[in-house]
Design brief:
- It is built from five helices and two strands.
- With 109 residues, the chain is mainly α.
């Protein structure tokens, strides 16, 4: 498995945001932390596990929380951003609001 660099992960998040019509978090330091977490997870597990989640131990068990996670679209529609706040809806980005904690939909919650 080839390791990913921070720059490769940044390109990945930019492509995801563009494809989904989302905006990346507006906090540069927080963005850097999330990208570092994604890069670490790729280099540890071989896939972009959401940096705000714990691994279940395999790609199959973690499939719902591969970035962008299965809950990101619904969370962005309902709360304006995904669980870890990497991706924001354009409306939320324009609102000037700050992200806040949202319920974790994983595991039926």
């Amino acid at each position: 498995m080839a390791e990913k660099s921070i720059e490769q992960t940044k390109r990945f998040t930019e492509m995801v945001a563009a494809k989904q019509g989302w905006i990346l978090t507006k906090d540069p330091a927080f963005y850097d932390d999330l990208v570092t977490g994604l890069t670490t997870n790729w280099n540890r597990y071989g896939y972009y596990l959401c940096p705000c989640r714990d691994s279940e131990g395999s790609r199959e068990a973690d499939a719902d929380v591969l970035c962008p996670c299965a809950y990101a679209k619904g969370d962005a529609e309902t709360y304006g951003h995904c669980f870890c706040s990497l991706y924001w809806s354009p409306e939320f980005a324009r609102s000037g609001k700050s992200p806040s904690g949202i319920p974790d939909r994983r595991g039926g919650s």
